[in-house]
């Protein structure tokens, strides 16, 4: 709810709120029979005293606009779900249908909190802090070029010029050989994974993902009706032999890997394991989906080349994005793989959204070719390295005897095992009370007692404070 | 295939093509066992003599890279689909899976032709010609504003400022009352329809669409497993009583309507029918999805207000977009409806693509508020009116005794009934031979013998030529 009370108005606050709700009822935005937020919640959302809302709801009831019943809250009159009168759609029945599962409650809880929290410490979401976005660089390189005069539908696989640039880009940065016709531009890596799970797999299919992994937190695997099996991750990545075991037992049809600076563990799969994984997958004829969002953010000067760069069998679908190296709101990602697969995904994608807007493609195309881009990358790595150092210092100082962790050599995340026994849900709630956000390991498929901290979102000074605050929260639970 | 032969190179053409294919095989873009295009097709795609390709394929076979068999074409060696050896993914099995139906062959045929056709007459696709896009206006209003410094993920429903602008926009142009929290920004109307069919309906549900209608041409209804029933359209739109009949017979759960300048017929539903449709839908509790892409493009000064503007029960989900009034490659559309529905769709949408890029939203936000926007609309309407007049003149002159049509009072399309008996498929193929593209009525659910012409894509002079050419094609079949 983004409307807010105008405190400078002559109109009393309760009157403003009354009219706001009345209007939403009249517009059909709160349809007959729907439930209004509780008084407490509405008061919080609108940042007013609870008694004001009690007053408003009383007035709404008096005017016949809502009905109130003990235990079932305040509802828009005069209709109730279940015994719905004629004249209105039972929207709840529609909302509960469809094939999409809702976002996991704990993740939704943290995301919702992140939206409203003021003066808090966000170590949860995997994105960069505002000052790390190259907004002025982007604008400068964009303004140098005229908009193309043809703004008609772009090619189903994405803007051709940009795909050609990307082919050179992945050659230069990742040693991947690909031509423009084997690239599909997507709305970030999220859409890439959505298309792959929806178009290349069938409900009931078995797939393997790393445990823990970011993939585990995505309801899209479940929404697609897939059965998920775990490839446990250790300090060297997954164990290639586990693929064989899963294949024999469950006939897994696809493997999802994030080999470099993995989310959430921050780990890097070793080279011998990479080679072995490719060998095994090729031998079994199982495709690998390689998610590679942050491999450019290496702190020790070492380059980690993707599986795709050493795959000669065409078994790897390579998924990348600019979300973590430029900006998440750009929404530019890609899939690279066999032409026949790319064509199929591009055709399905036309049905979903008719392709990505040309503008983010133009902006990305100009920026990644500009001399500013390598400068930006160097700046970004240096900043993240300093923040990581700050976090490592703070973890050692305030939590040295309470957590175990490896120092991440790149990426955005630090993964900690809490030595004491702890309930993830309680830890999250206590942390929220203290204005700290982090991601609990359980949403990534870990047992309770692991946490993923992002150092990319907080300034250096704030990282120290946040870890200290977290230490106090941990003492409490 | 976008690679092309370099005719200025010293390297022989067949050698260039050989290396191109060799590279694609090496990269895994043509995986082992996959079939290469036929010699004829490859020659066409690369715009070379067929004998050159015969030579290349001979060389590829000699080098062991491909295998050729009578009747089954040329395949990358040494593996075949079906009896696939170890070491490679059987991609075909994956491509044929998933829940997405491919685009209808006839539509794909026309779209593919549109991509490669040079000096032809495109009266098929529903988009504007290059000169009608306000590229310089867009750029000017965009460059006046600094990029926002925060380029992190935007709100799941879309950029707040843009949603607020849109709320005023639909009030001003369509007399629709809505607040920003009841708006979801989508990637065009296509994504709006995708989200609604995927998230609010279940496989097996019955829905009603206009006959003929653009919706009929969308495989997304079938992909979602919906059963589709017809609401025949006459000169006044659909007949409201048909809704009751369909409801009794099939328990239809949703109605899809395009009341103003409908695609493909160009017709407008009359006001009494609009009121009656709303009454009936409300009485039966069936939601209406109102698709309204072109109602602003009225030629006779008359404003046609959407169903949504007179709906007080919250039964209408209103779908709009800027594709036909600004540019299709902007990819900006929206759904407006009850907050609970919008929240559900926004949550599902996060799983699909994590939201629309902020840049098209910023560009649209700035342009539709600028004084240039009404000027652009006026220019666009005038241009389209002149092109419509040109088409009507040409139809009367060259096809007066062979087709029947109503003069469209707005929008992009002219819908013609051919008096003689004709096979749509044959007509399309003969037209393609003569470099003319149009949409046959059968893809919209009409019987054979109807055609949809777009006058938005051709310059005035070209319209006359195109209709004359079409008349000649019609004579032939």
TrEMBL record, chains A, B:
UniProt-listed InterPro entries: Aminotransferase_I/II_large, HTH_trans_reg/aminotransferase, PyrdxlP-dep_Trfase, PyrdxlP-dep_Trfase_major, PyrdxlP-dep_Trfase_small, Tscrpt_reg_HTH_GntR, WH-like_DNA-bd_sf, WH_DNA-bd_sf
The HTH gntR-type domain covers which part of the protein?
Answer: 11-79
Nucleotidyltransferase as a keyword of this entry, yes or no, is no
Alphabetized PROSITE patterns for the sequence: HTH_GNTR (PS50949)
Look up the record and name the cofactor or cofactors this protein needs.
Answer: pyridoxal 5'-phosphate
Q: Which organism is it from?
A: Bacillus benzoevorans
Task: Quote the Pfam families the UniProt record gives.
Answer: Aminotran_1_2 (PF00155), GntR (PF00392)
Looking up PANTHER family in the UniProt record yields:
HTH-TYPE TRANSCRIPTIONAL REGULATORY PROTEIN GABR, TRANSCRIPTIONAL REGULATORY PROTEIN
Superkingdom of this entry's organism? Answer: Bacteria
Q: Which UniProt keywords apply?
A: Aminotransferase, DNA-binding, Pyridoxal phosphate, Transcription, Transcription regulation, Transferase
State the family named in the UniProt similarity comment for this chain.
In the C-terminal section; belongs to the class-I pyridoxal-phosphate-dependent aminotransferase family.
Supply the name of the protein.
Answer: DNA-binding transcriptional MocR family regulator
């Amino acid at each position: 709810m983004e409307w807010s009370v105008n405190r400078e108005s002559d109109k009393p606050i309760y009157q403003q709120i009354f009219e706001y709700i009345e209007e939403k009822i009249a517009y059909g935005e709160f349809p007959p029979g729907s439930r209004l937020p509780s008084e407490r919640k509405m008061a919080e959302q609108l940042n007013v005293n609870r008694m004001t809302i009690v007053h408003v709801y009383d007035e709404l009831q008096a005017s016949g606009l809502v009905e109130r019943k003990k235990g079932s809250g305040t509802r828009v009159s005069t209709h109730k779900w279940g015994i719905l009168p004629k004249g209105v759609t039972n929207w709840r029945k529609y909302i509960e249908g469809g094939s999409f599962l809702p976002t996991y409650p704990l993740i939704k809880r943290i995301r919702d909190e992140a939206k409203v929290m003021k003066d808090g410490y966000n170590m949860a979401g995997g994105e960069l802090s505002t000052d790390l976005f190259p907004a002025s660089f982007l604008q400068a390189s964009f303004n140098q070029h005229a908009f193309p005069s043809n703004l008609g539908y772009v090619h189903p696989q994405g803007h051709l010029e940009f795909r050609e640039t990307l082919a050179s880009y992945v050659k230069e940065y990742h040693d991947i050989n690909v031509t423009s016709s084997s690239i599909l531009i997507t709305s970030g890596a999220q859409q890439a994974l959505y298309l792959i799970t929806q178009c290349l797999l069938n409900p009931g299919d078995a797939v393997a993902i790393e445990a823990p992994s970011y993939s585990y937190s995505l309801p899209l695997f479940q929404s697609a009706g897939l059965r998920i099996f775990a490839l446990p991750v250790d300090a060297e990545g997954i164990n290639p032999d586990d693929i064989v075991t899963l294949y024999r037992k469950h006939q897994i049809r696809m493997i999802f890997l994030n080999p470099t600076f993995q989310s959430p563990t921050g780990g890097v799969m070793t080279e011998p394991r990479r080679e072995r994984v490719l060998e095994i997958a090729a031998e079994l004829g199982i495709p690998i989906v390689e998610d590679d969002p942050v491999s450019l953010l290496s702190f020790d000067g070492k380059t980690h080349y993707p599986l795709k760069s050493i795959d000669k069998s065409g078994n790897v679908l390579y998924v990348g994005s600019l979300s973590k190296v430029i900006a998440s709101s750009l929404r530019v990602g890609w899939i690279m793989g066999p032409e026949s697969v790319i064509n199929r995904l591009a055709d399905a994608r036309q049905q979903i959204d008719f392709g990505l807007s040309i503008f983010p493609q133009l902006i990305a195309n100009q920026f990644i070719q500009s001399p500013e881009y390598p400068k930006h990358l160097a700046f970004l790595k240096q900043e993240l390295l300093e923040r990581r150092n700050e976090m490592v210092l703070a973890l050692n100082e305030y939590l040295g005897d309470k957590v175990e962790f490896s120092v991440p050599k790149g990426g955005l995340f630090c993964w900690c095992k809490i030595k004491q026994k702890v309930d993830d849900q309680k830890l999250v709630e206590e942390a929220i009370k203290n204005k700290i956000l982090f991601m609990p390991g359980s949403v990534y498929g870990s047992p309770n007692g692991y946490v993923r901290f992002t150092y990319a979102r907080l300034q250096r000074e704030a990282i120290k404070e946040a870890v200290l605050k977290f230490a106090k929260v941990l003492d409490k639970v």
